[in-house]
Amino acid sequence: MRGREDRGCPVTLLEAHAGLASSGDFSVADLGAGTGPSWLDSWLDRHRADVVAWRRSLHSVPELARSEQRSTALVARRLMAAGLEPRTLPGGTGLVCDVGYGDRCVALRADLDALPLAEDTGLSFASTVPGVMHACGHDAHTAIVLGAGLALASAPSLPGRVRLIFQPAEEVQPGGAIDMVADGAMEGVERIFALHCDPRLEVGRLGTRVGPITSACDLLEIRLTSPGGHTARPHLTADLVQAIGLLITQLPLLLTRQVDPRSGTVLVWGAVEAGEAANAIPQHGVLRGTLRTADHATWGELEGKIRSLIAALLAPTGVGYVLDHVRGVPPVVNDAVSAGMLADAAVAALGPDAATGTEQSSGGEDFAWYLEHVPGSMARLGVWPGHGLMRDIHQPTFDLDERALPVGVRILTNAALAALNA
């Protein structure tokens, strides 16, 4: 796709990449070496260290949601150096780029943003940005999709186009995928694939699942009001703290009788604020939590059910309230054909034991927005070295085995080719 005006890349980031590439140890094994196609083997032989360097460069300079200008520019520079024409979104964060020619098009998606966490890994390429780190593997996702795209660009020919989608703001609701769709990233796309790092799965394995693999996630905030009063005379006012207690205990319980128990619906409170003095009924209080479900149809019904239950619970108390129900992302529901293509791609690259099943997560993922438009699948890429601790995502100590990077490149390349040849 033809590029817009180049918004540039700070010298510091390019220098960081150059420094890593020239001085780092990038002797990462290619677990799928020799499985072809020959042009993919050749590209990885020559550029495997580059993929690792890209990941480390992104990791060392992480950027929060909707601030990923430098990461976007680094990716754009690599694509343009290969003769491709990336198009950056108007805000300067996120880009799309087509590889190949033809009417048929499949997409590969990566996410660019980091998390507001202070890194505690001790890595030589640890975050240089205070309070920000790539704790969810988005640096790896970006390096893998960039590698797959450039490998595909090296092929003698392709049976169609592969669209590379590097999106901003996956970590915030309702997600940067909406920005990409609104900007036309899905126009002409038949199918879409994505990988997500899984620190519970060993390197060389890919976890696939047909149907929902993540859950919808909404945010609830209930702001309560009361005239307030003395705790010695609760009958003369509206007891705001008691009302909060009712919501905390009864709303999740009653909701279980309003939805199908097979839907995996769960409401969990994360914050409550009310009052200061032990002998004073407060005038204001706030209750916040997350509402999750694995079922798409149930997700569409939840807001109405929640509003009705809150009204019924608070009516006898006299406490006033305002509900802010922020709808987040739908569940990621994997298409059977697409999930099968990813599993087959893993087997082709790494052998019959590479593909395995995976459980559904209660976490949310804005990859779901793409699946509102076309079939596709997200799979879990093993990043655990097979020994030592399994360092979970969204933790300051999260790290990954970089042998997973060429694995990811091979899987996405094979999946894209399979989809175009289907």
From TrEMBL:
Transmembrane feature ranges: none
Pfam families per UniProt: Peptidase_M20 (PF01546)
NCBIfam families: amidohydrolases (TIGR01891)
Protein name: Amidohydrolase
Provenance organism: Pseudonocardia acidicola
